[in-house]
Amino acid sequence: MIIQLNQAISESNKATIVEAIGKLGYKSTEVKTQKGKYLVSIGKKEFDIRSIGHLPGIDDIHRVSDEYKLVSRKWKVNRSQLDLGDGVVIGGNNLSIMAGPCSIETEKQVEQTLTHLTQNDVRIMRGGVFKPRSSPYAFRGLGVSGMKMWYKQARAAGVKIISEVMQVSQIAEMYDYVDIFQVGARNTQNFNLLDELGKVDKPVMIKRGISGTIEELLSSAEYVFSGGNEKLILCERGIRTYEKASRNTMDINAIPILKEKSHLPVIADPSHGIGIREYVEPVALAAIMAGADGIIYETHQNPEEAFSDGQQTLDFQESETLIKKLRMTFDLRNSF
Amino acid sequence: MIIQLNQAISESNKATIVEAIGKLGYKSTEVKTQKGKYLVSIGKKEFDIRSIGHLPGIDDIHRVSDEYKLVSRKWKVNRSQLDLGDGVVIGGNNLSIMAGPCSIETEKQVEQTLTHLTQNDVRIMRGGVFKPRSSPYAFRGLGVSGMKMWYKQARAAGVKIISEVMQVSQIAEMYDYVDIFQVGARNTQNFNLLDELGKVDKPVMIKRGISGTIEELLSSAEYVFSGGNEKLILCERGIRTYEKASRNTMDINAIPILKEKSHLPVIADPSHGIGIREYVEPVALAAIMAGADGIIYETHQNPEEAFSDGQQTLDFQESETLIKKLRMTFDLRNSF
Amino acid sequence: MIIQLNQAISESNKATIVEAIGKLGYKSTEVKTQKGKYLVSIGKKEFDIRSIGHLPGIDDIHRVSDEYKLVSRKWKVNRSQLDLGDGVVIGGNNLSIMAGPCSIETEKQVEQTLTHLTQNDVRIMRGGVFKPRSSPYAFRGLGVSGMKMWYKQARAAGVKIISEVMQVSQIAEMYDYVDIFQVGARNTQNFNLLDELGKVDKPVMIKRGISGTIEELLSSAEYVFSGGNEKLILCERGIRTYEKASRNTMDINAIPILKEKSHLPVIADPSHGIGIREYVEPVALAAIMAGADGIIYETHQNPEEAFSDGQQTLDFQESETLIKKLRMTFDLRNSF
Amino acid sequence: MIIQLNQAISESNKATIVEAIGKLGYKSTEVKTQKGKYLVSIGKKEFDIRSIGHLPGIDDIHRVSDEYKLVSRKWKVNRSQLDLGDGVVIGGNNLSIMAGPCSIETEKQVEQTLTHLTQNDVRIMRGGVFKPRSSPYAFRGLGVSGMKMWYKQARAAGVKIISEVMQVSQIAEMYDYVDIFQVGARNTQNFNLLDELGKVDKPVMIKRGISGTIEELLSSAEYVFSGGNEKLILCERGIRTYEKASRNTMDINAIPILKEKSHLPVIADPSHGIGIREYVEPVALAAIMAGADGIIYETHQNPEEAFSDGQQTLDFQESETLIKKLRMTFDLRNSF
Question: Which of A64, B9, D53, D166 stands 20 to 30 A from B281 (CA)?
């Protein structure tokens, strides 16, 4: 059960509500975000919600039977949108394109990428400065210094930044330089990291776990929301299956399901979803047709020389073609 | 290695070729289909194919390193098309829509379905008369009598028929009444059935196994082709994964991969691919955008009363909407 | 619901029972096996089974809520045993060892294998004469002539035969020469084959499907039992997962679960379960400790020269060591 | 390539080696653990290792082609053992039993558990004070205060403690109170946590990821080892598959494979591996027979009242029976 509290509710009125709910056997968690105040109340007993609906300070009450509550669409019919400023909005009638290299490598690389993006009117650049790598001996990213170098150029170009945060201590280090924190597929259930991101007033995009269920992804988002941050984006990036003809199996089903179950925007990552450069385009277009609010993909001036993930990275010409087709596909879908 | 033989090759010239190849350590299988004569030669030694290319009766020679040979696109650059007659062609620039109930149930049901299809200019009707069921106590289909009843009406309406064949003895029983034999997901590796379908001059659509790999699907098609029947269609219908929010996981990646690896047309089955009625449309549209040559899906006058699979079956209004969107999506993709 | 009928029940008494059950909304399937007569009655309405229990001809009535009925342990507390004659019994307090090559190849190979088996007091030999192969160009087995050659030697040696049947027409061809029909992992849901095996009075061992669920395996066994043949064995042989360090993932969990859910004997196949020769022994011993009634594995005089599956085949010395350890492990388990 | 350095090597000799290796195109990482000094050198060029073997300060050089190096068995033939003091040794000829509740709950619960363990001569107690939970609203453990309460009693009883660490900041908080840090299945690829555990001089047990590969588990162990801590244990705890009859699929194959590929001890977790109380015993015994060095499982005075995981938790009587059978099974295996 989600109780939407009035922004101006007094402490005593709130206490009265918690007590009333408690008497019904419900345990309440208070949530305060950038946009609202909520009580998430969990219990088993059936009761008539009108019996508490009259209490002062309550704006609305909703039954939500899902395990996840605040990210469910059961209480919030209007889909959430995220306004990053400067006209960049995620969700609603906007197609979000996030493109860039797997790893931030050099000043020149960032410059070339930004030029490519601005020429194609792409407003969000992806890139990693902290890289999760299976092997401890692999390149692990440029770290904060890379972040600052990138930020300086991106701001000048009017381009927003999305980048992966791997641990709690990096949140503060990255805070001034990112527009969206990305939680990677290996950290989808790093609950401490999610807790801390709940305390931050910046958007967070959570990737589905390597073999995470749709429900687990939503529960991870619930961590951040219930921690106080409702600026959330979900990302489908392919799952691990027995099939080895592709790096992962893009779960196209997850897109309409997530859009139905949650009010949060959904982004698809075809680069990881299939992992093979020549097939990124059809999978990206399919994801839009299935209902995605946008695409995040890897592009590099010279994929063969990329520090990581070159085999799934588009060159700028392929990227430009993709962008055009994404927009036409999105327009068709919107016309339906 | 595939050696395309001249249609008019003499037996003695053929024997000379087989012998020459044999001396190089290659074992040859002779294949004669509706369209051509081939030698599929398998061996390990590298040699200059020009050294045998001059032998009389050889039209062309192709190296094919894949496990599957005849269905590979490595030797056949032009994609295969299937002409079912009466202007119904699968593959090429045609969008194939195959729709109908899970099970053929009654004369009236067939009549209603045909009316719905013809009103929407859909030329191929699906339906099962032999139903593979996990439980021996479940409805197993109307059998041959249902087939005949269906055939009579479909012919009158100018609509083609695709239906599942489950065992060798049914091939002859069904032969006069089907336009396309469908091999179901539980029979993808029923090699005896595939062998027998190789001897038949009717198109065969092979569904991917419940947890079959892309390579296994292509190898199953190779059985039919090498048996003498190159009228083949591949069908992606979702795979079994750990995710239980959908019945299967539609492997959208498989579509561009199959189109790249094979010259055969590829059909997608969103009904089984996701298994939930309300999400069939987005998955169907995504499959077209990913490159599918067509869609097979379940529709019924009254899904709630369907004998089987009602939860993933569209009603006729939903079906009509889907058909329109499929065509617009296909047109957009073709415009790229 | 399973109604055990008296062997001597009259037709009119049976009709009375079917009618009485029918009035309660239950649909009955009559099953007559080598051992008993049953009515499998399926319906939804709750009623007091004592209300029909008095009808003449009824020996016993059992509620069975599982999807599968006759193979469930809910109605048959005593586990089933299979007596193959000559002192060879599967199930109960017997450890069944079935060993032999993947494919029957030559007279000499059969002779060597039989010598190895009899020296180690192994009473059941495995071997394939019909081989399911992904590629149509691979060796497909010696067929019926191989079967006969094998049979002649095995009978002389007092060794029983288990061999895979791939299609309906092979049942009659093999009938005189096999002691156990094996249904392979690609045919677990070949329902027509299962139907026909239900009409046969020889034991049938059903392997779990390549990605079959435990419930599907039990439902496949239900096909054979309800067809009239209750001489059944279940076989766990590994499932398909994302892990590629082994050929399949031996589902050790399936062994105690199958033993709990069904009264049928359970055999484990470590050769396919892990697919790597050097690890067959630990997996085989683990399966016994988990509760298996026996093991089926591949052994060959010279695994490197085996026509198929050499990489997972033990040589005779390894096989002999394994047999000894299997017996000691089985004895320990029985002592608990 | 792993170069074992002499403990007393001078800085200048080390520099000489790094330079010599560098000239061959190899990049070296210096590793200093509790037990040794190593250079892990990665490069592609083949060369004769004897050409550098004579350099002063080198004890030994080993080629290791695996992605993981220091945890590989290719360079360390003798398996690693961990001595926890007071006669508690993991690995070698020792059977390690780690038992206790999912969550540490109350003083009384800890007391009862310790009594049960000491009566059965079990020397290591498991228990969670930081609990990873899918839902933010679930019980998350008693935290450090629970840890201290537990520690006090366990020390008095002479029992060692293993407990899960979820994030970097908890390492210091827990350090004085644990004997083994456990990395949970959701943190197997939390690389920052692994990095920090490399700096600690306490044993670390790493659980396989929820759908982690065997190779990923070994690479995660490599993080800790290369960070400076070679006191490592691997744990197989079941993987996520399509099969839903059990909570996870215990990958019994992983046990012999890990023992073959790595010199580290391997523990099996049957509680999570199957997730159903009544089947924990057969799976535990199977894991021992497959080669595990020990078992970690959940037991509770009253499983029905456990705060978490009650459905897979043994009561003390079941636990006692299991312990006895584990020891007899281990003895049999050791006798082979």
Answer: A64
